[in-house]
Amino acid sequence: MDYVVGTRFHSVVFAQGMGSSVHGHRLRRQQGYGIMADMDLSDYVIPIDQVTGEGLCAMFDSLVAHDEKVRSRLRGWLVDAATRRDEMVQSLRSAI
To answer: What is the domain extent for residue 38?
Structure first.
């Protein structure tokens, strides 16, 4: 999928892992917002109690308009996460 509108944390994470641009709805205080903030994409998260049809459309239009910037940040974050994972595995292997 090119775009995902997710209301659950895992739907957002799994979609991002596949390279989809995501518009998330935050049900809990931090869960959905944290990962988007880590990627500097918090502009694309809206608290569930603030969702309106007009707001969703505007946010989705913004996501589409800034698609390459969003995907670039996502790719960079995924590469960085893989590097950190590999470093942690190597550190664990060295400790064992």
So the answer is: 3-95
